[in-house]
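Q: I'm writing up a methods section and want to include an example of the input and output format. Could you take the sequence below and give the corresponding predicted structure tokens, formatted cleanly so I can copy it straight into the document?
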Amino acid sequence: MTRLFFFLPFAIFVIIGAYLGIGLTNDPNKLPVVLTGKIAPNFSLAPLKGRDNRGFSNNDLTGKISLINFWGSWCISCKAEHSFLMKLKTSNAIQINGVNWREKNMDSGFQWLKRFGDPYNFVGVDPNSEVVIGFGVTGAPETFLIDANGRIRFKHVGPLNQKIFDEKIVPLITILQKES
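A: Here is the clean output for your methods example:
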């Protein structure tokens, strides 16, 4: 019995160590996306103050393949991806829509776009994270590829860049264009 009590803490340590070791090998960018293949959640967002009088809703997602980019002026990674979004807009490769998320000052989003450029066709504000929760967003930036029927086809967590766009999104766009 004494040997069992000696061995038990060691066994527990090995089991916990193995569990944590396996967890550390997982890629945090490969989160399960339960909405892939499903119609985007219903939403209707108010316009970004200062930009225009039109907000952004799920009705704006039908008819063409597009991206939804969740961002905030407070987000350092959003600033890192922004120059790529501007480049993508000028290439006319795909329509980009934005959801400005959790701004403390409602003027911040517009001032940020004024300073760095506005890559978005439609922008809505989500100050209370209602749409963010509906899409399962875990942090900014996150970008979703939406097909012409309003279905979510791909989710990217983190800053979008040319490599990710070319390797992951462009092949999906090509497939989606053939489907329509």
